[in-house]
Amino acid sequence: MRIIIEDSYESMSKKAALMLAGQILLKPDTILGLATGSTPIGMYKELVRMHKEEDLDFSNVVTFNLDEYVGLDKNDKNSYHYYMFQNFFNHINIKKENIYIPDGMAQDLEEECKRYERIIEEKGGIDLQILGIGKNGHIGFNEPDLKFEATTHVVKLDEETIMANSRFFNSIAEVPRFAISMGIKTIMHSKKIILLASGEEKAEAIYKAIYGPIVPKHPASVLQLHPDVTFILDKDAAKFIKLR
Ligand SMILES: N[C@@H]1[C@@H](O)[C@H](O)[C@@H](COP(=O)(O)O)O[C@@H]1O
């Protein structure tokens, strides 16, 4: 595990964008796993800048998003679909057919999970997965649990997550209670993983992810078992980390 501590949110975002751009330069048909939430917004902004000013080419890149709310239409401004197009896809030269996001409106959600997992496999698996982290240690929407959920599945969101994400909605009642999320196995099968965290409110979750026991009660702790994972943190999120 590599841990990179940056002074600010901006430099954390730039470092992540640089690593992702490096991956695309080395392998133009890279398969990316992408995350939502407020944390990666700076990284997406920087990647858009690199596309516009430095010709970073996304024409052969394939992307799979980690998760999506159940019951929100693609055009709902709170869907992760909408988020991804607004913050990233509309501003780069990615091909629409190379973008994969779970369909939270699917009639048969179980079948949708299987379908999603199957496409990831058919494409050869994820080369580089970007992750954020919830205050309760969730990655994607893998909430604290009694066991690590293996592949893409339907999740019942924790009260804490519903509360945290309610800031984007008009009221807490509007926050979906369910989501589709890649599972821990899907995430752990990625060849490389970069986890981003910013702000003091993530410091404890980061500490437990790095030093804590590997337990499904703290989903991010499983990353200790991955052979190529990099945490890029700002100073505040790294508050409890001591580097020698
Ligand atoms: N499903 C997403 C996660 O993928 C994200 O990492 C997390 C943290 O979000 P934020 O970056 O806004 O703190 O929240 C959401 O619930």
UniProtKB/TrEMBL annotation:
Q: Which residues form a coiled coil?
A: none
Glucosamine/galactosamine-6-phosphate isomerase domain mapped to chain residues: 27-224
Keyword flag Acetylation:
no
Any GO BP annotation: N-acetylneuraminate catabolic process
Q: Name one Pfam family in it.
A: Glucosamine_iso
Which of UniProt's keywords are assigned here? Carbohydrate metabolism, Hydrolase
Catalytic activity line of the entry: alpha-D-glucosamine 6-phosphate + H2O = beta-D-fructose 6-phosphate + NH4(+)
Keyword Transferase recorded: no
- Residues annotated as the enzyme's active site: D67, N136, H138, E143
Q: What is its EC number?
A: 3.5.99.6
Q: What's any one GO cellular component for it?
A: cytoplasm
Which Gene3D superfamilies does the annotation name?
A: 3.40.50.1360
Pathway given for this chain reads:
Amino-sugar metabolism; N-acetylneuraminate degradation; D-fructose 6-phosphate from N-acetylneuraminate: step 5/5
User: What does the record give under GO molecular function?
Assistant: glucosamine-6-phosphate deaminase activity; identical protein binding
Q: Where is the signal peptide?
A: none
Looking up HAMAP family in the UniProt record yields: GlcN6P_deamin
Q: What is the stated purpose of this protein?
A: Catalyzes the reversible isomerization-deamination of glucosamine 6-phosphate (GlcN6P) to form fructose 6-phosphate (Fru6P) and ammonium ion.
PANTHER family referenced in this protein's UniProt entry, alphabetically: GLUCOSAMINE-6-PHOSPHATE ISOMERASE (PTHR11280:SF5)
Assigned protein family: Belongs to the glucosamine/galactosamine-6-phosphate isomerase family. NagB subfamily.
Q: Tell me what this protein is called.
A: Glucosamine-6-phosphate deaminase
